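hi support,

uploading two proteins for the ticket. first:
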Amino acid sequence: MKPVRALALAALTCAALCAAGAAQAGGSSGASRFCDRGQPLTAAEQDRLLRFAAVLREELADVGDGVALVSRSGLDLSRFDIRYSHAALAWRSDTGAWSARQLYYACDESRPRIFDQGLAGFALGTDDPALGYVSIVRLPAEAIAPLRPALLDGPRVQHLLAAKYSASAYAFSVRYQNCNQWVMEMLAAGWGELPDGDDLRERAQAWLRDERYTPQPVQVGSRFLMLASHFVPLLHLDDHPDEDRSAMQLRVSLPSTVEAFVHQRYPASTRVELCHDDERIVIHRGWTPVAAGCKPGEGDQVVSLRD
């Protein structure tokens, strides 16, 4: 695959994932193809994903009224060694209902928005209904205590939202933002106990720098990258440092970098990975990835979808 085409595919993936809430939030009559599902789900596919969501809820049952980091797969980006493209923060309301608070791109408005989505909708948002992955990171009590009030603080949540979206947003610029960068800045606002204010994003990024948040650079591998922003909507490069563009690497927040930061800061955090194919759901515990193709390994739990 040519480098620019590959980058375009990655950008389309994150754009589509971050726009997944648009239809749930009120339709997308004027939406571009970035917001449209390729094919509607069949009854069998919808049933499979709803059963997958039920297992996801079961895994969160013992979290109490806390907060968990959840991530979802999208298009097949294994060629870039990327399994997860979209992260959110899941929380349970006083009524016991779980929601995933996340950034999505509102196509009708041409701007990013914060959207609360039920866990079933989160699972249904996967691009491939035949093979999907969800990662859950449970946080210890000392991490939840400062994070939950920040996550439920409407003004702080909105002040962390950028006016412009970019799938390739630089992790230390306030010019743009992608879905995973909003999660990172939300963690910073909570764990740094940062008060509200118009400059909250700047202070959140400064806190992340001080805490040595270092997203691993995405290696692009071609100078044709500079052309991509001219023809790929929702992809911008003008926020990245010149030295990064010259080195053909982008420091972008991805679910893997969010999880790595959480694990480093709170080693007591635990992780479980859920995946499904046409026949089964696999539940894999630990910080090592479940096998590609959703193949169960030693110690993994398997739930049949053939029942």
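and the second one:
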Amino acid sequence: MSKFAVEWLNHARSVLDEIESTQLKNIEEAAMIMANSIEKRRWVHTFGCGHSTIPVEEMYPRIGGFVGFHPMIELPLSFFTHIHGDMGVHQFLFLERVEGYGREILKSYNLHSEDTMWLFSHSGINNVIIDVALRAKELGLGLVVCGSEKAFTGKKSRHSSGIKLFEIADVVIDSCVPAVDATVQLNRHFDRVGPVSTMAFTSMVWMVITTVAGILEERGVKLYIHPSHNVPGDETAHERLTDALNEYKRRIAGV
């Protein structure tokens, strides 16, 4: 049965190889937009729906992450592990397709034209994420989108505008994931198992963020990095972590 494990791993490697061979220029462009925002002590706001909230949660707060990335997590669009009952899968599938919801979400935040909005969506066709993108562009934010752009070429948007998320972005980083997402075909089932979009998203997150860090360091910008606070002998780790959290608190005031 280990053949299935190896098959998934091979698909995952193939996706990462394609990201490396086709997306480095886009990663560099996206990182430059984000670095410009962070250098001005502004924000890179990060948002996704469903499992596309996982890369948002992965990047900050996180050991090896740094201040400048602002996670926006809308609980009904992310916490559906109850499966049934309150905040279950049925509610989530309905809500992510409700046009206007994304605009209401953004009313709770102070967005600035020098900020960047970084969005994650596998398909780029659902209403909430498109609402958020359209509003961000109206307010003059830079817009970076990660998703499977090539795989969804020709697929129709669910938004009344007819626009897909990838058509709005200043920079698209293609996750290079097939539209079906799951990659391993079993012997006696129609549906595949083993999705790779989350693996692609989290890999892209750190490819982008490490590039942002390099750009800012070259510009002489101090980074407030979250240290590994579990390493024996590092006597100042907690102090550095406190400094980073205090800097985040200073910057987030009013957001």
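thanks. also noticed: The first strand starts at residue 44 and ends at 48.
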